[in-house]
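Narrative of activities, Objective 1.

The group set out to show that a structural description can be obtained from nothing but a protein's sequence at a throughput compatible with the screening campaign. Below is one input-output pair from the validation batch, recorded exactly as produced.
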Amino acid sequence: MNILGEKVRIRDRIPGDSLQEIIWEMDAEIRHADPPAGKLLNSQRFSIETLEGEHIGSCSLYNWTDTDIQFGIRIGNKHYWNKGYGTDATNALVNYCFVTSGIERIWLKVLPWNTRAIKCYEKCGFTRAGWLALDGYDFALMEIRKPEIGYSGE
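Output recorded for this entry:
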């Protein structure tokens, strides 16, 4: 897979990606903002890189049904935080899902104090959809639905 955004490329994972992601996972700030919680069924993980080819994060699609799918993203390289890379990657993958599949709803869970992530998701069109208590965490649920008419991914 190769999905282009304005700032990023979402691509299939390669062997070298795992080592970098383990290093990011060891960072307490990153781990605190994105705790492992819940089951991941039928998941597919991708890597996020800059258009210049630098691996800066990962994103996942999982727990999908015929009409909806769960989304997750992590920009692990802090140098790229607050610069629009997460927003661009989110928009690119959401658009790809809506244009190329029968998916009608994409949802995610986020810790309610993670305002940076929530602002990113809201910029991409996600709205708040409720709350979920899971594995000792209280998550805000957010979702975006495919427009009914004329969705072209723009």
